[in-house]
Specification:
Blueprint: H1 2-17, H2 21-41, H3 51-57, H4 66-75, H5 79-90, H6 101-113
Length: about 120
């Protein structure tokens, strides 16, 4: 056990005084993955439930085509996808080729009501 501790200390000293780019990059990537995992796990803020957008639009689904409903289900599959759609389509006023313009405005309108929860 004593030899293992000496080996760990020697490796730490070596990496401290003679840094290696590949090892540093690996360490930073691993650290970033862990921090993201912990922040996602320990997030205590109130967040948007992804299917809330779908349930708010259920009364208006009669004007949506089958293709548009399937696209809406994909968008509301997770909070991350809703957030990505909001910032890439709704905020930039870019057209989503699947939705009709009025239906896209409805979807973006509902998502924008919950934008502070994304």
């Amino acid at each position: 056990m004593k030899h293992l501790l000496i080996l760990i200390v020697a490796a730490a000293l070596y990496l401290h005084f003679y840094p290696n780019e590949e090892v540093t990059a690996l360490y930073n990537d691993g650290k970033q993955v862990l921090l993201e995992g912990f922040s996602e796990f320990s997030d205590t803020k109130v967040r948007l439930k992804a299917d809330k957008v779908y349930t708010d639009l259920e009364s208006e689904l009669g004007s949506f085509s089958e293709k548009e409903i399937e696209r809406l289900k994909v968008i509301t599959s997770s909070r991350h996808v809703v957030k990505e759609y909001y910032f890439s389509i709704c905020k930039t006023e870019q057209r989503d080729i699947v939705f009709h313009i009025t239906n896209q405005k409805k979807v973006c309108g509902v998502i924008s009501r919950y934008a502070n929860l994304l």
